[in-house]
Amino acid sequence: MTNRILHEAAFEPLQLGHIVPEGWIRDQLRLQADGLTGHLEEHWKDVGPDNGWIGGDGESWERGPYYLDGLVPLAFLLQDERLIAKAQRWIEWSLASQRADGSFGPARIETVNQDVDKNQDWWHYMIMLKVLMQYAEATGDARVVPFMSRFLHYVRCRIEAHPLKDWAVPRGAELMLAIHWTYARTGDAFLPELSEIVAAQTTDWTGLLADFPFWRKVEHWDHRTHVVNVAMGIKTPALLSELTGDGERLKAAALKGIDSLMTYHGQAHGMFSGDEWLSGTHPSQGVELCAVVEYMYTLEQLTRVFGDGRFGDILEQVAFNALPAAISADWTSHQYDQQVNQIMCNVAKRDWSNNEEANLFGLEPNFGCCTANMHQGWPKLVSHAWMSDREGGLAAVSYVPCVVRAVVGSAGTEAKLEVSGGYPFRESVRIALQLPQSERFKLRLRIPGWCATPSLTVNGAAVELAADNGYATVERDWSDGDELMLGLLMEVRTVSRHLYAASVERGPLVYALPVGENWLPHIRRERFSDWELYPTTAWRYGLIEDAGFVCETADIPPQPFLAAASPVRLRTRGKLVRNWRMAGNNADSPPLNPDVAGQAAEELVLVPYGGAKLRIGEFPRIRAD
């Protein structure tokens, strides 16, 4: 194949470091840096001094690259010299490891995964290429692009004789990402052809998403139903769109697949279940933390390629709910699997394929992949919060507080946007512009699907909004000091779920009833211990229909995802449900016909889902009469 080109995506991410976190999201990144991300090397041998990706004899497959995939963006977003030095050690080793044939990395594969060919595999390289891409954008290091080009020449020489296998087959889009990134910087003619070869060896996610076959809980091994593979694989249509230009068909397949996943396996926090495989809609099924952060990255790529605001809606729901729910507020422990209705986190047999420790909060519950991979979630949300629209304008993906620096307009003016307001804990977003000179360009503002009546003022004057594909475009001559106030009215809504249970949403936040938590040590360590959580308050509450909700706000603390300090709460009414039982160490399905005979109505205070580590997020409905 000759003279192949890649088709342009709708948006282009800004280089790492051009979006600086502020407010509560900066506090989250600081908690990461002071917790597991910033100190994992000293306390977990799998990414410690013996790791094969820094020249040791230990683990040399995915765990080092996974860790770097979050450490690198975190370090440069915070401009934390200690973390940058940590990351640099790994980067320098990888760059220095390249051989004459273009290959690089550890000479052998050492891993606890027993299903990996330790003689040859492609998967771990895909992760490290993503790491190097981020590092190059943050630093401008001129070594990276030729390094990647040499490695991709090596891949082209070998991939037909040694095709993708095992974990690399469902995850081939990750390699396509690196190929497309390199092509954008080199124009090397062989790269589109290589991408086609990789695409042909990758799972046909487009076909699976367009005609979804997994309607029920899956109880046997298959790479196509492994929840993390699915979370990664959904981005495949986007990479194929860059390859073929068939964007509308491929976007439709991705959206149809997401709708099918939520119909058959959807959970209130925006994820589909998977404890290890797709697991149905029961609110006591788990979802793996690796799947959460990988799905976030997939949604960022879907937004980049297709420019559709719906992907941003899903991204925020997952980021603001499922991500913080699985990580302790001080960033010293995490879960492998979380549950929407989570009434205990303890060593116990559950109807999962994962082991008895999967929902503990700890260093390495169940398996170590999430310990290595969890770190990318918040940093990549920040680095993808705004993108270039490729026309000299900017597109909002998420309204987290930040400062954006970008070149805008036909004159190439350096613009600075200060995004504030406390979103998603508040309904207003303030965007203040700083410009050295007036410049005409477009601001594409994402209008979430949950917001029926958005409003916008520019310098106090109302501006009419008309959304197309989830974006309202405001084009004008912008001047220094211009200020936008975007109002995103958040109405409380109840969503009908499994067996007519109800979840509660307001804006992108899901609300849950916090259950009192007693944290008991399971394994004590110097810094990162394992914990069981047991309830100290009742959890068997249903919501009274038509009771209404009263929203209350408080100051936004450094850690807003902590039930006791929630910056926003919903007050409503409910009753204890006598026939809601436990089953298999979990809360059973919310009763379709809740028995509340003799139970008085009580005030219930709901908080953002991510702040309640024990909680009820799907409630039985109780008729008002």
Uncertain residue segments: none
Q: Supply the number of helical segments.
A: 16
User: Share of helix among residues?
Assistant: 25-40%
What structural category do the secondary elements indicate? alpha+beta
Taking all residues together, what is the mean pLDDT?
97
Specify the biggest β-sheet. Answer: 9 strands, mixed
Distance between the termini: 70 Å
Query: Rg from C-alpha positions?
Result: 24 Å
Q: Give the beta-strand count.
A: 28
Beta-strand percentage?
A: 15-25%
Given the C-alpha coordinates, what overall shape results?
globular
Give an overview in words.
- The chain has 16 helices and 28 strands.
- With 625 residues, it is α+β, with helices and mostly antiparallel strands.
- The model has no long low-confidence stretch (mean pLDDT 97).
Summarize the structure.
With 625 residues, the protein is of the alpha+beta class. Helix content is 32%, strand content 21%. Strands 16, 17, 18, 21, 22, 23, 26, 27 and 28 form a 9-stranded mixed β-sheet that branches. A 7-stranded antiparallel β-sheet has the order 2-7-8-9-15-11-12. It has a 6-stranded mixed β-sheet with strand order 1-5-6-10-14-13, with no helix packed on it.
Keywords:
single chain; 625 residues; alpha+beta; nine-stranded mixed sheet; seven-stranded antiparallel sheet; globular
